[in-house]
């Protein structure tokens, strides 16, 4: 049934057939995600809601925006992409998120939490201005309801004078279990008939923003959903509505239902045993916190993914999860530091972008000893454009009074975390997801001091981070066969630069390698440093000025010129000039 489905055929199915379709969708998602990796439990939970939406509304004429977007797999299967679904998250295949370039059914690209209501309002307002008539729907999880951007959007509903449907898909989780007062508030709305009076009382908050609140319903009951959505479709002609439904994350697959946190995201492909930097971070921070009572860990709804589950268990009074509120987390860390605590803010590189202003004003302008642990830095792979962590070196390096460290492997990372305890200034440590290798050389960590790993006269390779240094070693090995010797320097501090090493370099050919965008990154800093030196030739290798699509990490690095052959060829052409 699924391989031939389209909107017209779906609307002709009876309830029994729609339920069979839901099970086909679940089976296809499980099969594909187990092979390719991806977001499993969230997609299994939203199957009935997605089928009901496609049954009642008329896509792509009507518009749907999935908040965050990782729960769009059923939507993709219902919109002509079944035959390509096996390519999900693979290079050149379907994206794991909504993508306008991919289908007319994807009206807005999403990848970060909290953006869907603003987007829905903008599309609805454009519809009104142009005199068009279609429905606009935002599907948003309860985790995103903690994000402040939602309430900025709510606040503009009346001034915009337009109508949208917001579907609150309440499963009690984002990646970690949802926390905070808004979650507790939604729980009150979610209870049985005994609490109807409370429901009526609390739903008034949405009415004050301009929404008609309708809830709470079983979001995995097709009959109820179709009936309710059909009713709301008529209401949307005159008002905006919030529909509150409860869904079961991981629905239909017992392993997911029992452990939705662990099955939020599934890794596919390469199953080699590797050490995650987050695990090293969590273990090291726990050991340090045993001795140092000032250490506090802060996360924005990502506790297990960032390696902090053990810390939260052992030191609950010093463990803070603020929900999906990255800006708030940054200011909170700043305030904690003013009172003598030592905050460690762990966050994915792609989500740290949301805290840019607060890093400048609240942390760095006050010179506060906050350590920002930037996880998933560099190309992150299959999640695509919205999740590639390739901008942090660029936007962090321009901030005064911020020290930026990049460990060469997981052992050096652990030593950097230990060293950071005594570093009394703003600090960012950036690292990828997985540690693949350890390097033999070990030297003390000192702010702004690099490490010479190998000596060679023809060129110097300045590399920051494990992936870059591993590539540098592969380049050196290839060049040795041609009699070309190169130095390899572990540029473990991108800021400040090690001027002592830079000034002592005898090589006139300098190569920089970084797992970051070229513009504003480490290479551009080295180019600026040697701008007045007519003897030096500096060639940076990193990512060009474009958004990087989804695919395997090694494939993407290769595609964008971070590969052995490109660097070897350049050095061979320029080594003896």
Report on this model:
- The chain is an alpha/beta fold and 577 residues long.
- It folds into three domains: 2-261, 3-Layer(aba) Sandwich (Rossmann fold); 276-435, Thiamin diphosphate (ThDP)-binding fold, Pyr/PP domains (Rossmann fold), CATH 3.40.50; 451-574, Rossmann fold.
- It is built from 25 helices and 21 strands.
- The strands form five sheets. It has a seven-stranded mixed β-sheet with strand order 10-9-11-12-14-13-19, sandwiched between helices.
- It is globular, with a radius of gyration of 26 Å.
SSE inventory with pairings:
Elements: H1 7-10, H2 15-36, E1 37-39, H3 41-45, H4 47-56, E2 63-66, H5 73-77, H6 116-129, E3 136-141, H7 148-155, H8 157-160, E4 165-170, H9 181-189, H10 196-202, H11 204-209, E5 211-218, H12 222-235, E6 240-246, H13 254-258, E7 265-267, E8 275-276, H14 277-291, E9 295-299, H15 309-314, E10 319-321, H16 326-338, E11 342-348, H17 349-352, H18 356-364, E12 371-375, H19 392-397, E13 403-405, H20 410-420, E14 427-430, E15 434-435, E16 451-454, E17 459-464, H21 466-480, E18 486-490, E19 493-495, H22 499-504, E20 509-517, H23 522-529, E21 537-543, H24 553-559, H25 564-574
Parallel strand pairs: 2-3, 3-4, 4-6, 5-6, 9-10, 9-11, 11-12, 12-14, 13-14, 17-18, 17-20, 20-21
Antiparallel strand pairs: 1-7, 8-15, 13-19, 16-18
Helix pairs in contact: 4-12, 6-7, 14-20, 16-18, 21-25
């Amino acid at each position: 049934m699924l391989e031939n489905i389209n909107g017209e055929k779906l609307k002709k199915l009876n309830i029994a057939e729609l339920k069979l379709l839901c099970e086909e969708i679940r089976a296809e998602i499980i099969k594909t995600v187990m092979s390719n990796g991806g977001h499993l439990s969230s997609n299994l939970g939203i199957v009935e809601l997605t089928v009901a939406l496609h049954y009642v509304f008329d896509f792509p004429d009507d518009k749907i925006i999935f908040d965050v977007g990782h729960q769009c797999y059923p939507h993709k299967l219902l919109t002509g992409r079944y035959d390509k679904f096996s390519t999900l998250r693979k290079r050149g295949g379907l994206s794991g998120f909504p993508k306008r370039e991919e289908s007319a059914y994807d009206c807005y690209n999403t990848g970060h939490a909290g953006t869907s209501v603003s987007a829905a309002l903008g599309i609805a307002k454009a519809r009104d201005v142009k005199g068009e008539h279609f429905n606009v729907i935002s599907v948003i999880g309860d985790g995103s309801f903690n994000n402040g951007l939602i309430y900025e959007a709510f606040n503009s509903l009346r001034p915009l004078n337009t109508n949208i449907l917001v579907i609150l898909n309440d499963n009690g989780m984002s990646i970690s279990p949802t926390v905070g007062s808004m979650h507790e508030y939604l729980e009150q709305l979610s209870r049985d008939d005994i609490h109807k009076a409370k429901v009526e009382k609390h739903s008034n908050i949405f009415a004050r923003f301009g929404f008609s609140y309708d809830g709470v319903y079983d979001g995995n009951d097709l009959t109820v959903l179709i009936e309710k959505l059909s009713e709301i479709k008529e209401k949307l002609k005159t008002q905006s509505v919030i529909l509150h439904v409860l869904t079961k994350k991981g629905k239909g697959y017992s392993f997911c239902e029992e452990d939705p946190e662990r099955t939020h995201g599934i890794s596919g492909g390469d199953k080699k045993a590797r050490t995650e930097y987050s695990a090293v971070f969590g273990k090291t921070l726990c050991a340090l916190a045993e001795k140092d009572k000032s250490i506090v860990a802060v996360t924005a709804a990502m506790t297990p993914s960032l390696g902090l589950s053990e810390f939260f268990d052992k030191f609950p009074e010093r463990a803070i999860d603020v929900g999906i509120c990255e800006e708030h987390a940054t200011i909170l860390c700043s305030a904690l530091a003013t009172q003598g605590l030592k905050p460690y803010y762990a966050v994915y590189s792609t989500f740290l972008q949301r805290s840019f202003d607060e890093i400048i004003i609240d942390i760095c302008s006050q010179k506060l000893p906050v350590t920002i642990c930037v996880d998933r830095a560099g190309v992150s792979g299959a999640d695509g454009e919205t999740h590639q962590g390739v901008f942090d070196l660029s936007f962090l390096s321009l901030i005064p009074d911020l020290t930026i460290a990049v460990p060469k492997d997981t052992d050096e990372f652990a030593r950097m975390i230990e060293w950071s305890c005594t570093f009394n200034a703003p600090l960012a440590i950036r690292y990828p997801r997985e540690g693949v290798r350890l390097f033999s050389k070990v030297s003390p960590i000192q702010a702004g001091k690099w490490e010479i790993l190998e000596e060679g006269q023809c060129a110097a390779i300045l590399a920051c981070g494990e992936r870059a240094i591993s590539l540098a070693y592969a380049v050196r090995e290839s060049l040795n066969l041609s009699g070309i010797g190169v130095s390899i320097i572990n540029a473990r501090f991108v800021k400040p630069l090690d001027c002592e090493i830079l000034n002592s370099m005898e090589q006139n050919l300098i190569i920089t390698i970084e797992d970051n965008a070229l513009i504003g990154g480490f290479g551009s800093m080295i180019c600026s440093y040697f701008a007045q030196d007519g003897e030096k030739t500096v060639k940076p290798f990193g990512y060009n000025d474009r958004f990087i699509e989804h695919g395997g990490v090694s494939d993407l690095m290769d595609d964008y010129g971070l590969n052995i052959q490109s660097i070897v060829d350049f050095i061979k052409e320029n080594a003896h000039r």
